[in-house]
Write a structure and sequence with these properties.
about 230 residues, mainly alpha, 11 helices, 4 strands
């Protein structure tokens, strides 16, 4: 059976990828991506892979780019999949066919910064970066994502007012507690193994994080109003 399956894979049209090959391409950028999540993205209309006569999914290069764009928007901007699908469809409609993917303004290519570039981009001092790493706010690495650059730029702004990374350790601890709270809220979905449930959990997690962030912001504002009144 395995040999027959391999033969069917080899007989697929040139340029099309199996679900395993798509995972191999995308998981370096999106480590949490699974085959269940890919199937859920298909159900949500993000991609429509072709099928072999035996029912195997086959993804085109444009499918892969749509997936990359959708996952980037979901990860970095917390957009719901319905909005992401509309943006991708609109971007594709402005092109000349299915091979057109979201432009950089919608789905920016993942960029990573080396340490010196990170410092130059954010205006941070080497000591501030080291302090942020020591405080557990940033994980030491050879290269850093745009998210880390945004975080470090925020730390630079706070440092100007005397708020140092060591003062923010509680924020990291609170973030971990919030993540645990969201995981607990999604426990029922996470225990299931079907693609729809796992995919729904992946979609709900950033939405819940955004809602918690809104509540946190309002609570801080209320506390400041009381302190300054």
């Amino acid at each position: 059976m395995a040999a027959a399956g391999a033969a069917r894979e080899r007989s697929a049209p040139t340029g099309l990828l199996s679900i395993g090959q798509v995972l191999a391409r995308l998981t370096p950028e999106f480590p949490q991506l699974t085959s269940s999540k890919l199937r859920f993205l298909e159900v949500q209309g993000i991609v429509t892979p072709s099928r072999t006569e035996s029912g195997y999914r086959k993804f085109s290069p444009s499918d892969v780019e749509r997936l990359r764009a959708a996952l980037t928007l979901q990860r970095d901007h917390y957009l719901p999949l319905s909005v992401i699908r509309e943006q991708l469809d609109e971007a594709e409609a402005k092109g000349e066919g299915r091979g057109v993917v979201a432009p950089p303004s919608i789905a920016p290519a993942a960029r990573r910064h080396r340490r010196e570039e990170l410092l130059s981009t954010t205006g941070a001092t080497p000591q501030l970066l080291n302090d942020a790493i020591s405080a557990g706010l940033i994980t030491a690495s050879e290269t850093y994502t745009e998210q880390v650059a945004t975080l470090l730029a925020g730390l630079v702004a706070l440092a100007r007012h005397g708020i140092e990374p060591r003062h923010l350790r509680s924020l990291r601890q609170n973030a971990e507690r919030e993540a645990a709270l969201i995981e607990s809220a999604l426990a029922t979905l996470l225990r299931r193994t079907d693609a729809a449930s796992r995919g729904r959990a992946s979609e709900l997690a950033p939405e819940l994080a955004g809602r918690i962030g809104e509540v946190r912001g309002m609570l801080v504002k209320q506390a400041l109003d009381r302190a300054l009144s």
